[in-house]
Amino acid sequence: MKILHLDSSISGENSASRALSAAFVQKLTAADPAAELIYHDLVERPLEHLTFPEFQTAQSQAVLDEFNAADTIVIGAAMYNFTIPTQLKAWIDRVLIGGQTFRYTESGAEGLAGSKRVIVALARGGLYGEGSAQQAFEHAEQYLRAAFAFIGISQPEFVIAEGLALGDDARAASLQAALASVVEGRAAASARLSLEAV
Ligand SMILES: Cc1cc2nc3c(=O)[nH]c(=O)nc-3n(C[C@H](O)[C@H](O)[C@H](O)COP(=O)(O)O)c2cc1C
Q1: How many CB atoms lie within 10 A of CB 188?
Q2: Nearest CA to ligand 1 atom 10
Q3: Under DSSP, is residue 144 helix (H, G, I), strand (E, B) or coil?
Q4: Which of 81, 120, 134, 179 to mutate to test the pocket of ligand 1 (most atoms within 8 A of CB)?
Q5: Looking at the whole model, is its pTM more than 0.85?
Q6: HSE-up of 192 (CA within 13 Å, CB side)?
Q7: What confidence tens digit (pLDDT) does each residue in 99-139 have?
């Protein structure tokens, strides 16, 4: 198994998403000690914002090649201003490439990367669950689900720690529950999203 592990929080060792993505990778490598692991800290070594010349660089090609070669992708994502970090968006800009990970046909778009497993460890300061006041402001999980569905990965798994800005107790409880769900293998592949639904 080839695992690609990415982190995108700017908070270093205080980051919940980094702790959760690391826990998930630890679980995967414990189950398969022969797994090949590639790690990128997208904050430490950021990709450039996308330009047309950037599409042509060896680095952009390498990002796409790495994604194509991976069986499992584990992504640590923080919610910033209701969506994902720009560092992670820059990575996605190298991965959603026409003719490579999706293509347009006469009947619409077709994802070409469907065989991969994607696990997202997402950390949010507020609460965005079903029925919450801020539900409509959620563009991190929703965006990632749509982006991966577009390339054929209709069931990315999410482990989410939220309410992390609501005080020390709320933060500790949320993080502990999310870590427990990783340990127990309860990351949720809920809300199947397919191209038809996008
Ligand atoms: C610049 C910045 C913007 C943020 N924007 C939001 C936001 O829009 N909604 C939210 O719920 N939390 C927001 N937060 C809180 C983070 O989502 C929260 O701290 C989370 O734990 C970040 O993930 P991390 O712990 O992996 O760094 C923001 C934090 C920062 C630093």
Answers
A1: 12
A2: 125
A3: helix
A4: 81
A5: yes
A6: 3
A7: 999 999 999 999 999 999 999 999 999 999 999 999 999 99
